[in-house]
Amino acid sequence: MSYLYLSDEVIAGFDKYKYNAVDTSPVGKYITHPFWNWCIQFFPRWLAPNVMTLAGFLLYLCTFILLMYYDLDFYASSRDHPEFPPVPNWVWLACALCIFFAHNLDGMDGKQARRTGSSSPVGELFDHGLDSWVTIIAALAMYSVFGRGETGINVYRVYFAAWTVMLTFIATHWEKYNTKVLYLPWGYDLSQLALVAVLLVTYFGTYEVWKIDVDVPQVGYMTSTQLGEIGVHVILFGLSLPMSLWNIYVSYHDKSGKMHSFYEANRPLIPVFILVISFSIWAWYSSIGLLERQPRLFYWATGTAFAHVTCRLIISQMSNTRCEIYNWLLTPVVAMGIAVLLFNLGVWEMYFLWAYTALVTIAHLHFGVCVVKQMADHFGIHVFSIKKRE
Fold it and tell me: What is the pLDDT of residue 23?
Protein backbone atom coordinates (compact mmCIF):
# COMPACT_ATOMS: atom_id res chain seq x y z
CA MET A 1 0.00 0.00 0.00
CA SER A 2 1.39 3.38 -1.04
CA TYR A 3 1.79 6.13 1.54
CA LEU A 4 2.78 9.77 1.04
CA TYR A 5 5.72 10.18 3.41
CA LEU A 6 6.92 13.51 1.99
CA SER A 7 5.16 16.73 2.97
CA ASP A 8 4.32 19.49 0.50
CA GLU A 9 7.21 21.50 1.97
CA VAL A 10 9.68 18.72 1.21
CA ILE A 11 8.33 18.23 -2.32
CA ALA A 12 8.60 21.98 -2.95
CA GLY A 13 12.20 21.84 -1.72
CA PHE A 14 13.01 19.11 -4.22
CA ASP A 15 11.63 21.32 -7.01
CA LYS A 16 14.43 23.80 -6.26
CA TYR A 17 17.18 21.22 -5.84
CA LYS A 18 20.41 21.54 -7.82
CA TYR A 19 23.04 18.83 -7.80
CA ASN A 20 26.28 20.11 -6.28
CA ALA A 21 29.05 17.60 -5.61
CA VAL A 22 32.84 17.75 -5.48
CA ASP A 23 35.21 14.78 -5.73
CA THR A 24 38.81 15.69 -4.92
CA SER A 25 39.94 12.14 -4.18
CA PRO A 26 43.20 11.23 -5.95
CA VAL A 27 41.86 7.70 -6.47
CA GLY A 28 38.73 9.11 -8.09
CA LYS A 29 40.58 11.68 -10.15
CA TYR A 30 43.29 9.43 -11.56
CA ILE A 31 41.83 5.92 -11.45
CA THR A 32 38.09 5.39 -11.06
CA HIS A 33 36.63 8.37 -12.96
CA PRO A 34 38.86 7.89 -16.05
CA PHE A 35 37.93 4.20 -16.02
CA TRP A 36 34.22 4.96 -15.67
CA ASN A 37 34.37 7.59 -18.42
CA TRP A 38 35.79 4.93 -20.73
CA CYS A 39 33.31 2.22 -19.66
CA ILE A 40 30.16 4.33 -19.86
CA GLN A 41 30.42 4.69 -23.64
CA PHE A 42 29.62 0.97 -23.99
CA PHE A 43 26.29 1.24 -22.15
CA PRO A 44 23.18 1.69 -24.34
CA ARG A 45 21.53 5.08 -24.06
CA TRP A 46 18.12 3.50 -23.40
CA LEU A 47 19.38 2.01 -20.14
CA ALA A 48 17.95 3.92 -17.17
CA PRO A 49 20.54 4.98 -14.56
CA ASN A 50 18.33 3.70 -11.74
CA VAL A 51 18.50 0.21 -13.24
CA MET A 52 22.28 0.40 -12.85
CA THR A 53 21.89 1.65 -9.28
CA LEU A 54 19.52 -1.17 -8.34
CA ALA A 55 21.66 -3.78 -10.10
CA GLY A 56 24.69 -2.64 -8.09
CA PHE A 57 22.77 -2.91 -4.82
CA LEU A 58 21.49 -6.38 -5.70
CA LEU A 59 25.06 -7.50 -6.38
CA TYR A 60 26.00 -6.34 -2.89
CA LEU A 61 22.98 -8.19 -1.53
CA CYS A 62 24.18 -11.35 -3.30
CA THR A 63 27.48 -10.99 -1.42
CA PHE A 64 25.61 -10.73 1.89
CA ILE A 65 23.42 -13.76 1.14
CA LEU A 66 26.34 -15.92 -0.02
CA LEU A 67 28.41 -15.19 3.07
CA MET A 68 25.40 -15.55 5.34
CA TYR A 69 24.83 -19.04 3.94
CA TYR A 70 28.43 -20.20 4.24
CA ASP A 71 29.51 -18.15 7.27
CA LEU A 72 26.46 -17.28 9.34
CA ASP A 73 28.29 -16.75 12.65
CA PHE A 74 31.69 -15.57 11.30
CA TYR A 75 33.55 -18.70 12.43
CA ALA A 76 34.39 -20.09 8.97
CA SER A 77 37.74 -18.25 8.86
CA SER A 78 38.67 -19.15 12.42
CA ARG A 79 41.43 -21.66 13.17
CA ASP A 80 40.20 -22.39 16.67
CA HIS A 81 36.70 -23.42 15.54
CA PRO A 82 37.28 -26.37 13.18
CA GLU A 83 33.66 -27.45 13.60
CA PHE A 84 32.74 -24.69 11.16
CA PRO A 85 33.89 -25.54 7.60
CA PRO A 86 35.72 -22.79 5.70
CA VAL A 87 33.96 -20.75 3.05
CA PRO A 88 34.40 -22.44 -0.37
CA ASN A 89 37.07 -20.68 -2.38
CA TRP A 90 34.77 -19.85 -5.27
CA VAL A 91 32.62 -17.75 -2.91
CA TRP A 92 35.48 -15.30 -2.31
CA LEU A 93 35.89 -14.86 -6.07
CA ALA A 94 32.14 -14.44 -6.56
CA CYS A 95 31.99 -11.82 -3.81
CA ALA A 96 34.99 -9.96 -5.24
CA LEU A 97 33.35 -9.82 -8.67
CA CYS A 98 29.98 -8.77 -7.21
CA ILE A 99 31.54 -5.89 -5.26
CA PHE A 100 33.78 -4.86 -8.18
CA PHE A 101 30.83 -4.58 -10.57
CA ALA A 102 28.58 -3.06 -7.90
CA HIS A 103 31.12 -0.33 -7.15
CA ASN A 104 31.54 0.47 -10.83
CA LEU A 105 27.80 0.55 -11.50
CA ASP A 106 27.43 2.89 -8.52
CA GLY A 107 30.10 5.14 -10.00
CA MET A 108 28.65 5.15 -13.50
CA ASP A 109 24.93 5.59 -12.84
CA GLY A 110 25.31 9.36 -12.43
CA LYS A 111 27.39 9.57 -15.62
CA GLN A 112 24.69 7.64 -17.47
CA ALA A 113 22.07 10.06 -16.14
CA ARG A 114 23.99 13.09 -17.38
CA ARG A 115 24.82 11.34 -20.66
CA THR A 116 21.15 10.61 -21.37
CA GLY A 117 19.77 13.86 -19.96
CA SER A 118 17.77 11.96 -17.34
CA SER A 119 19.29 13.41 -14.16
CA SER A 120 16.77 14.04 -11.39
CA PRO A 121 16.57 14.29 -7.60
CA VAL A 122 14.88 10.86 -7.70
CA GLY A 123 18.04 9.24 -9.03
CA GLU A 124 20.33 10.89 -6.49
CA LEU A 125 18.10 9.98 -3.56
CA PHE A 126 17.71 6.40 -4.85
CA ASP A 127 21.49 6.09 -5.27
CA HIS A 128 22.56 7.50 -1.91
CA GLY A 129 19.70 5.79 -0.07
CA LEU A 130 20.85 2.37 -1.25
CA ASP A 131 24.49 3.30 -0.56
CA SER A 132 23.59 3.89 3.09
CA TRP A 133 22.38 0.29 3.33
CA VAL A 134 25.50 -1.04 1.61
CA THR A 135 27.77 0.25 4.41
CA ILE A 136 26.89 -2.62 6.75
CA ILE A 137 27.11 -5.22 3.97
CA ALA A 138 30.64 -4.15 3.06
CA ALA A 139 31.75 -4.24 6.69
CA LEU A 140 30.38 -7.76 7.19
CA ALA A 141 32.05 -9.04 4.01
CA MET A 142 35.39 -7.97 5.45
CA TYR A 143 34.56 -9.62 8.79
CA SER A 144 33.99 -12.97 7.08
CA VAL A 145 37.54 -12.81 5.70
CA PHE A 146 39.16 -12.46 9.15
CA GLY A 147 36.56 -14.24 11.28
CA ARG A 148 36.13 -14.63 15.03
CA GLY A 149 38.31 -16.40 17.57
CA GLU A 150 41.85 -16.00 18.83
CA THR A 151 43.28 -15.29 15.39
CA GLY A 152 40.35 -13.10 14.37
CA ILE A 153 38.39 -10.30 15.96
CA ASN A 154 35.55 -10.42 18.49
CA VAL A 155 32.02 -9.33 17.65
CA TYR A 156 32.09 -6.23 19.87
CA ARG A 157 35.12 -4.73 18.17
CA VAL A 158 33.53 -5.41 14.78
CA TYR A 159 30.34 -3.77 15.99
CA PHE A 160 32.23 -0.54 16.72
CA ALA A 161 34.25 -0.85 13.49
CA ALA A 162 30.97 -1.17 11.58
CA TRP A 163 29.72 1.99 13.29
CA THR A 164 32.91 3.72 12.18
CA VAL A 165 32.15 2.76 8.56
CA MET A 166 28.55 3.96 8.89
CA LEU A 167 29.54 7.23 10.58
CA THR A 168 32.02 7.89 7.78
CA PHE A 169 29.12 7.70 5.34
CA ILE A 170 26.66 9.87 7.26
CA ALA A 171 29.33 12.50 8.01
CA THR A 172 29.31 13.35 4.30
CA HIS A 173 25.57 14.05 4.29
CA TRP A 174 25.71 15.92 7.58
CA GLU A 175 28.40 18.02 5.93
CA LYS A 176 26.17 18.72 2.92
CA TYR A 177 23.27 19.57 5.25
CA ASN A 178 25.43 22.48 6.42
CA THR A 179 27.56 23.41 3.41
CA LYS A 180 25.11 22.78 0.52
CA VAL A 181 27.91 20.83 -1.20
CA LEU A 182 28.37 17.05 -1.30
CA TYR A 183 32.09 16.50 -0.81
CA LEU A 184 32.55 12.88 -1.81
CA PRO A 185 34.67 11.08 0.84
CA TRP A 186 38.20 10.11 -0.09
CA GLY A 187 37.84 6.79 1.69
CA TYR A 188 34.94 5.47 -0.41
CA ASP A 189 36.66 4.42 -3.64
CA LEU A 190 39.76 3.39 -1.71
CA SER A 191 37.77 1.16 0.65
CA GLN A 192 35.85 -0.49 -2.19
CA LEU A 193 39.01 -1.26 -4.15
CA ALA A 194 40.70 -2.50 -0.97
CA LEU A 195 37.77 -4.82 -0.21
CA VAL A 196 37.88 -6.29 -3.71
CA ALA A 197 41.66 -6.78 -3.38
CA VAL A 198 41.27 -8.49 0.03
CA LEU A 199 38.64 -10.86 -1.36
CA LEU A 200 40.80 -11.72 -4.38
CA VAL A 201 43.85 -12.39 -2.19
CA THR A 202 41.65 -14.61 -0.02
CA TYR A 203 40.51 -16.48 -3.13
CA PHE A 204 44.09 -17.20 -4.23
CA GLY A 205 45.58 -17.78 -0.77
CA THR A 206 42.54 -18.84 1.35
CA TYR A 207 41.77 -17.10 4.63
CA GLU A 208 45.02 -18.53 6.06
CA VAL A 209 46.97 -15.89 4.16
CA TRP A 210 45.75 -13.30 6.69
CA LYS A 211 46.83 -15.26 9.76
CA ILE A 212 50.15 -13.46 10.03
CA ASP A 213 51.88 -11.14 12.46
CA VAL A 214 53.44 -7.92 11.22
CA ASP A 215 56.36 -6.26 13.00
CA VAL A 216 55.32 -2.62 13.36
CA PRO A 217 58.20 -0.25 14.28
CA GLN A 218 57.93 1.22 17.80
CA VAL A 219 54.89 -0.97 18.47
CA GLY A 220 55.85 -4.61 18.07
CA TYR A 221 54.02 -7.47 16.42
CA MET A 222 50.41 -6.97 15.38
CA THR A 223 48.08 -9.28 13.50
CA SER A 224 46.84 -8.32 10.04
CA THR A 225 43.36 -8.22 11.57
CA GLN A 226 44.41 -5.59 14.09
CA LEU A 227 46.05 -3.51 11.38
CA GLY A 228 42.88 -3.67 9.27
CA GLU A 229 40.75 -2.68 12.24
CA ILE A 230 43.00 0.31 12.98
CA GLY A 231 42.86 1.29 9.32
CA VAL A 232 39.05 1.47 9.43
CA HIS A 233 39.13 3.86 12.39
CA VAL A 234 41.92 5.95 10.85
CA ILE A 235 39.80 6.53 7.72
CA LEU A 236 37.05 8.13 9.84
CA PHE A 237 38.98 9.93 12.56
CA GLY A 238 42.09 10.73 10.54
CA LEU A 239 40.65 11.45 7.11
CA SER A 240 36.87 11.72 6.58
CA LEU A 241 35.75 13.46 9.78
CA PRO A 242 38.55 16.09 9.83
CA MET A 243 37.80 16.94 6.17
CA SER A 244 34.08 17.25 6.91
CA LEU A 245 34.72 19.51 9.89
CA TRP A 246 37.11 21.62 7.83
CA ASN A 247 34.63 22.02 4.97
CA ILE A 248 31.90 23.03 7.43
CA TYR A 249 34.27 25.53 9.07
CA VAL A 250 35.15 27.04 5.66
CA SER A 251 31.45 27.36 4.78
CA TYR A 252 30.86 29.39 7.95
CA HIS A 253 34.01 31.44 7.47
CA ASP A 254 33.12 32.26 3.84
CA LYS A 255 29.37 32.45 4.57
CA SER A 256 28.82 30.04 1.67
CA GLY A 257 26.84 27.45 3.64
CA LYS A 258 23.45 27.52 5.30
CA MET A 259 24.79 29.34 8.37
CA HIS A 260 22.79 27.25 10.84
CA SER A 261 23.03 27.84 14.57
CA PHE A 262 25.10 25.28 16.49
CA TYR A 263 21.99 23.35 17.47
CA GLU A 264 20.45 23.37 14.00
CA ALA A 265 23.76 22.35 12.41
CA ASN A 266 23.95 19.29 14.64
CA ARG A 267 20.28 18.23 14.58
CA PRO A 268 21.03 15.43 12.06
CA LEU A 269 23.42 13.83 14.56
CA ILE A 270 20.81 13.47 17.32
CA PRO A 271 18.98 10.41 15.89
CA VAL A 272 22.36 8.85 15.08
CA PHE A 273 23.48 9.41 18.66
CA ILE A 274 20.24 7.84 19.94
CA LEU A 275 20.77 4.84 17.68
CA VAL A 276 24.42 4.31 18.66
CA ILE A 277 23.74 4.60 22.41
CA SER A 278 20.62 2.40 22.37
CA PHE A 279 22.09 -0.43 20.30
CA SER A 280 25.38 -0.28 22.22
CA ILE A 281 23.65 -0.54 25.60
CA TRP A 282 21.62 -3.47 24.31
CA ALA A 283 24.72 -5.23 22.97
CA TRP A 284 26.83 -4.60 26.08
CA TYR A 285 24.26 -5.31 28.80
CA SER A 286 22.35 -8.15 27.16
CA SER A 287 21.68 -10.88 29.74
CA ILE A 288 22.23 -13.62 27.16
CA GLY A 289 25.17 -12.10 25.24
CA LEU A 290 22.92 -11.45 22.26
CA LEU A 291 25.63 -10.03 20.03
CA GLU A 292 27.72 -13.18 20.60
CA ARG A 293 24.78 -15.46 19.83
CA GLN A 294 23.25 -13.62 16.86
CA PRO A 295 25.94 -11.32 15.46
CA ARG A 296 24.79 -11.19 11.85
CA LEU A 297 21.17 -10.52 12.78
CA PHE A 298 22.20 -7.80 15.25
CA TYR A 299 24.49 -6.16 12.66
CA TRP A 300 21.75 -6.26 10.01
CA ALA A 301 19.21 -4.64 12.34
CA THR A 302 21.73 -1.95 13.29
CA GLY A 303 22.70 -1.26 9.67
CA THR A 304 19.09 -1.10 8.47
CA ALA A 305 18.04 1.26 11.28
CA PHE A 306 21.07 3.40 10.40
CA ALA A 307 20.14 3.40 6.70
CA HIS A 308 16.63 4.59 7.61
CA VAL A 309 17.95 7.50 9.68
CA THR A 310 20.42 8.38 6.93
CA CYS A 311 17.75 8.37 4.22
CA ARG A 312 15.70 10.84 6.23
CA LEU A 313 18.76 13.08 6.53
CA ILE A 314 19.41 12.85 2.78
CA ILE A 315 15.83 13.91 2.11
CA SER A 316 16.26 16.90 4.42
CA GLN A 317 19.55 18.07 2.94
CA MET A 318 18.31 17.67 -0.66
CA SER A 319 15.00 19.46 -0.02
CA ASN A 320 16.61 22.11 2.22
CA THR A 321 14.17 21.37 5.03
CA ARG A 322 14.73 20.98 8.76
CA CYS A 323 16.09 17.57 9.72
CA GLU A 324 13.94 15.59 12.14
CA ILE A 325 15.50 14.40 15.39
CA TYR A 326 13.36 11.32 15.98
CA ASN A 327 11.36 8.73 14.05
CA TRP A 328 9.17 5.92 15.31
CA LEU A 329 11.62 3.14 14.37
CA LEU A 330 13.96 4.40 17.10
CA THR A 331 11.40 3.72 19.83
CA PRO A 332 11.78 -0.10 20.03
CA VAL A 333 15.58 0.16 20.25
CA VAL A 334 15.43 2.87 22.92
CA ALA A 335 12.92 0.76 24.85
CA MET A 336 15.15 -2.32 24.64
CA GLY A 337 18.19 -0.32 25.72
CA ILE A 338 16.31 0.74 28.85
CA ALA A 339 14.81 -2.72 29.41
CA VAL A 340 18.14 -4.59 29.48
CA LEU A 341 19.37 -2.18 32.16
CA LEU A 342 16.36 -2.83 34.37
CA PHE A 343 15.39 -6.45 33.74
CA ASN A 344 16.85 -9.86 32.97
CA LEU A 345 14.90 -10.59 29.80
CA GLY A 346 16.64 -13.84 28.92
CA VAL A 347 15.58 -15.47 25.68
CA TRP A 348 12.92 -12.78 25.11
CA GLU A 349 15.75 -10.60 23.82
CA MET A 350 16.25 -13.06 20.99
CA TYR A 351 12.57 -12.96 20.05
CA PHE A 352 12.57 -9.17 20.17
CA LEU A 353 15.66 -8.97 17.94
CA TRP A 354 14.02 -11.17 15.30
CA ALA A 355 10.83 -9.13 15.49
CA TYR A 356 12.63 -5.78 15.31
CA THR A 357 14.83 -6.93 12.42
CA ALA A 358 11.74 -7.92 10.44
CA LEU A 359 9.97 -4.68 11.38
CA VAL A 360 12.81 -2.30 10.53
CA THR A 361 13.59 -4.11 7.25
CA ILE A 362 9.97 -4.09 6.05
CA ALA A 363 9.35 -0.53 7.26
CA HIS A 364 12.51 0.76 5.60
CA LEU A 365 11.66 -0.96 2.32
CA HIS A 366 8.14 0.46 2.44
CA PHE A 367 9.49 3.93 3.19
CA GLY A 368 12.00 3.75 0.32
CA VAL A 369 9.54 2.42 -2.26
CA CYS A 370 6.84 4.93 -1.32
CA VAL A 371 9.20 7.93 -1.26
CA VAL A 372 10.69 7.08 -4.66
CA LYS A 373 7.21 6.50 -6.12
CA GLN A 374 5.91 9.77 -4.66
CA MET A 375 8.82 11.71 -6.14
CA ALA A 376 8.56 9.95 -9.50
CA ASP A 377 4.85 10.80 -9.65
CA HIS A 378 5.61 14.42 -8.79
CA PHE A 379 8.34 14.81 -11.43
CA GLY A 380 6.41 12.80 -14.03
CA ILE A 381 9.12 10.23 -14.68
CA HIS A 382 9.48 6.46 -14.73
CA VAL A 383 11.93 5.17 -12.12
CA PHE A 384 13.36 2.39 -14.29
CA SER A 385 12.89 3.88 -17.74
CA ILE A 386 14.29 6.97 -19.42
CA LYS A 387 11.01 7.72 -21.16
CA LYS A 388 9.01 10.59 -19.72
CA ARG A 389 5.43 9.99 -18.65
CA GLU A 390 2.81 11.29 -21.03
Answer: 85
